[in-house]
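Exercise 4. Each item below gives a protein and its sequence. For each, produce the structure-token representation.

Item: Response regulator receiver domain-containing protein (Neorhizobium alkalisoli).
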Amino acid sequence: MPSTQIIGIVDDDEDLPAALSSLVRSLGYGAECFSSASALLARKDLDTFSCVISDIHMPVMDGIALAQKLGEIAADLPVILMTGRNEEGLERKAYAAGAICFMPKPFSFDDLSRSLDKALAAKG
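Answer:
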């Protein structure tokens, strides 16, 4: 049942996590927001999350490094990476780091829904 699935949202932007969590909740999932990769990683109960959605460009630890770290410590946790920057090779780097989906910003409600469906199906 989707209502029991919690999506972790990581973004250093002040406004995006609230907006994204609202979209996630409208799809029937729970959401918990983090302002940095280290704040998410400080959680001892990462198995609470069904999926993590993270921005790529953040200070200290970016989304690419976060996806790699989650692959080491929570290999079954799917990661969706998003970015507002159009950099050559960035999508390839995201997938190489272990991301299940890559979403360029701005993305649509349907893009988010499809990415969550894919990520949650991968988790099993």
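Check: The beta strands are 6-10, 30-34, 49-55, 79-83, 101-104.
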